[in-house]
Amino acid sequence: MRASLIQIAVSEDESVDSRRERAAALVREQAGSADLVVLPELWTTGAFAYEQFGAEAEPLRGPTYEAMAGAAADAGVWLHAGSVPERDAEGALYNTSLVFSPSGELAASYRKIHRFGFDKGEAVLMGAGRELVTVRLPSTTLGLATCYDLRFPELFRGLVDGGAEVLVIPAGWPERRRGHWTLLARARAVENQAFVLACGTAGEHAGVPQAGHSIVVDPWGEVLGEAGAGEEVLRVSFDAGKVGVTREQFPALKDRVLGVEAPRR
Q1: Of 86, 147, 165, 231, which residue is the catalytic one?
Q2: I need a surface site. Which of 46, 127, 142, 146 has the fewest CB within 10 A?
Q3: Domain range list for the chain
Q4: What's the pTM?
């Protein structure tokens, strides 16, 4: 499988419409060189631009949906279009990822379960998703997660139980915690014996410098490719069949013990 992770830069000097057009053009440029293309989290607004969430929120089938569906079809790729601030019919906001097939059809959407911010920002402005989501491709199954989800290993166990072999994680991860980004991406790959494709943003969101450093990790925790800090397209080829081989050669997942009682206090 050939993957292109588009580490797009987010800047307040560029309008959302302009960045949407630029992102679509970058996706189209992957035609013939990628099977799967991934964009970051909340790249239309910036993950820390909280005041923009409501102003730029879209229905699921809004302008970003239309632009990304067309780009996926034109490039003939599976496209994880990152996430957008979605406003549902009742007016609630969600951090929602969109995945398109090579024909431009919506293959899946995922509302982020773990919202960052503790008692402010995304945690209070957006609703929480309730469902784990996997997407079946011809050669493998994707498991969907978003940014802060990376810190919660039980979510990824659920995705693996649902058949996931490639874990795709768009993010708007801050530079000051970049060490955690790399560490957790490798940990999720090793403990689940799965590929991890983690795509971050470059630039600065509402004064918060972004980590960049999008990364692809194999089921043994080996880094197959890592971007730098600026805008770039990280291209990595990998054999999705390695997941099955790894799980057969080192069947650690079979030794999971579930239902253990918590210690008494």
Answers
A1: 147
A2: 127
A3: 2-253
A4: 0.97
